[in-house]
Structures are given as C-alpha cells and as structure tokens.
C-alpha cells in the first residue's frame, strides 16, 4: 500500500548515524543524500526519507503517529532495537517482546528527533 515515508529531522547527520544502524539490521544499505539534501534509503521496493522541513520551521514528531518496520524474526527486532538505543534512540513502551494474544513480536523506539518507531515481526501460528 505504501510507496514511501518521509519524516523531518533537525540534524540529518545525526539521523544518518541512527538510521544507518537501525535500518541496517533489516538489510537496508546505508542512506545517501539526494540532490535536495534529503537522506534516502531504498529497501524491498520502498523508500524511507529524512529531510529538513521545506518550510524552514523546525522538524517535530507527529503526536500519535508510529512508523513500523517489518522484521524477519524476533532476533532481528531485538537487533533493530539495540542498534537504535546504541545510536541515539530512546527505548519506549514495553520491552521488546511478544504481545500476548496478538501474534506479534514488537519493539518500540523514538529516534533522536522524537519520531516513534516500531519493529514488528508476525509470529507463526
């Protein structure tokens, strides 16, 4: 359903360190800057971009929004979470783990700009 997601950042170099580490755990290559100065990641047919807001105002995170990243296993979700915390992110909500009755293994972080992120692995029945 989604082709891409774009979020704002006030420090693109800091974001590159964070997202290179976090997205690298799910197989994405390090991001690169495009001709407009946006940080771009391509993986599995989708794009994830990080940019300074074009209106010149400071970037802010969306209250109530969460960006989810699919992981291949609980171990990959754990690696994603660890990489995020080690590279400037903040662990939030419950510790990474299976949510009883949901069939999902989840891990939550906030990136250095405060955007809420989730690693999700659907457990087999």
Automatic annotation (TrEMBL):
Name the UniProt record assigns to this protein: VOC family protein
Alphabetical list of PROSITE patterns matching this protein: VOC
A Pfam family recorded for this sequence: Glyoxalase
SUPFAM superfamilies tied to this protein: Glyoxalase/Bleomycin resistance protein/Dihydroxybiphenyl dioxygenase
InterPro entries in UniProt: Glyas_Bleomycin-R_OHBP_Dase (IPR029068), Glyas_Fos-R_dOase_dom (IPR004360), VOC_core (IPR037523)
VOC domain: residues covered: 1-122
């Amino acid at each position: 359903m989604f082709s891409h997601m774009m979020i704002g950042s006030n420090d693109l170099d800091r974001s590159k360190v964070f997202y290179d580490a976090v997205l690298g755990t799910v197989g994405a290559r390090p991001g690169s800057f495009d001709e407009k100065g946006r940080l771009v990641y391509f993986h599995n047919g989708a794009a994830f971009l990080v940019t300074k807001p074009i209106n010149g105002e400071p970037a802010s995170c969306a209250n109530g929004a969460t960006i989810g990243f699919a992981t291949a296993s609980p171990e990959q979700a754990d690696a994603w979470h660890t990489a995020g915390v080690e590279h400037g992110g903040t662990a939030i909500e419950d510790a990474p783990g299976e949510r009883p009755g949901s069939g999902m293994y989840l891990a939550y972080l906030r990136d250095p700009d405060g955007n809420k992120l989730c690693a999700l692995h659907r457990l087999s029945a």
